[in-house]
Amino acid sequence: MNEEASVEEKEVNPILPQSQESVREIENMKEQDAKHKVGYLWKLHFFVGFLTLCFGIMCNGGRKYIAVDHSKYESRQCDKLFVNVYSTSADEEGALICCRDDNTNSFSEIMTYEGFLCNKKLKSMPLAKALTRYPDSWLLPLIPLALRMVIIFFGKLLNRPHPHPHDLWTSTKRLLFLCSIFMVRGWGLYVFLNMVEDIVLSSNILSSPTREAVMETTNLDSCWFSPLFKSWQRKFSEEGDKCYGVEFDFSDHVVLFFSHSYPTMIFEAMFCFLVPFIPKERNHLNTSPYIKQPGGFHRVLEYFLETVLPIGLLLMFLYLNMLTLLAVHSTVAYYHSIGEVVVGYIISLFIQIPVGFIIYADGKWKNIRSLVGYPKDRDHHLD
User: Fold this and answer.
1) Higher pLDDT, 35 or 303
2) What are the transmembrane regions (predicted)?
3) SS3 label, residue 199
4) Is the pLDDT of residue 329 over 60?
5) Are residues 72 and 227 in contact, defined by beta-carbon separation less than 8 angstroms?
6) Strand 96-99 relative to strand 80-84: parallel, antiparallel, unpaired?
7) Spatial contact of 339 and 248, defined as CB atoms under 8 Å apart
8) Where are the beta strands (DSSP E) in the chain?
9) Residue 160 pLDDT more than 80?
10) How does DSSP assign 346-376, residue by residue?
11) 8-state DSSP, 281
């Protein structure tokens, strides 16, 4: 019997290392494939946003609209009224856009330039207003991260150790990193740069001829649409002797969308791609899921965490990105000049580009990835 056992060991044991090595090779191939996919997905995400911006600029045509008091416009009955602040009179083509609720019901009407601006259905889509509202705009990108942390705590309560024992700490680091992005965007790229913009426009930093030209085109006397102002617009214009909406104002909404919503959503989405909510234990021939207990409840819970939840988050990610791109197009095509949009987008690159490097770059960015709670080598290992 002993001789037979020794013969079996000689026959079987050499196979085990080969099997383990082949498993490692397969895992390494999957990791390399994941690296490339993450890079492609981020680049695709980035260029879709950039192309949306370019399309909005093409539709803009040098116009900039503000909403005014429609009740003061007696020529037509409007439910909402927009004025092109760069127009010279009400008779100019595109100077006024009069919106009526019953004029943009068909798809063909919505797809026109005026119809897209007037349509209420697009603006009333679920979560559409949350993108620009505090604290909603801060909380939405954090939903996948919050769910991951809840799952980790839930596993600890069940005494089920997570396959990544440091996942709670890395999730905390990503939470701090995302919150720091929100703070930099809010206080640095919005409040501080708005102060700089006001100083530049109101001081003698501009050359004298340039400043006189700016003041001449923005003062209240040259504002033909001032009778249509809302009360707060009139008050603002009278206090500064300015025609509201004409003076340069870089697009803070473009900064919001491209340095707040857009990069933070892809940041956590790519992490979920690299490290699923319930990953398989690595380096074992017989891998087992995170929750593997007998009973119907645990099987249902396992199916929910491994299948239903990721699909739901993917659909939410796609939906929020669609809303963001629609909001970008609306902002760029109607509410800001091309120069204001370009400046806002350039400002957003101060966050977009570093986040992109953290997601997919190699070299010195490995340590930074680990610092902000990302897999150091873009594989499934967490530090």
Assistant:
1) 303
2) 40-58, 138-155, 175-193, 260-279, 300-322, 342-361
3) helix
4) yes
5) yes
6) antiparallel
7) yes
8) 65-68, 80-84, 96-99
9) no
10) HHHHHHHHHHHHHHH--TTHHHHHHHTTS-T
11) P
Q: Residue for token digits 């009407």?
A: 109
Residue partners of 294: CB distance under 8 A and separation at least 6: none
Q: Which residue has the tokens 């965490």?
A: 305
Does residue 98 have a pLDDT over 50?
A: yes
Domain spans in the chain, listed from the N-terminal domain onward: 31-60+129-216+248-371, 65-118
Residues with Cβ within 8 Å of residue 116, at least 6 apart in sequence? 110, 122, 330, 333
Sheet strands side by side (includes 65-68) = 65-68, 80-84, 96-99
Amino acid code (one letter) for 112: T
Type of residue numbered 338: I
Q: Is the pLDDT of residue 11 over 60?
A: no
Cα separation, 383 vs 165, in Å, equals 10
Is 127 strand, coil or helix? Answer: coil
CA distance 267 to 179: 13
CB 326 within 8 A of CB 133: no
CA distance 236 to 238: 6
How many residues are listed for the chain in this entry?
Answer: 383
Q: Looking only at Cα atoms, what is the longest distance across the chain?
A: 108
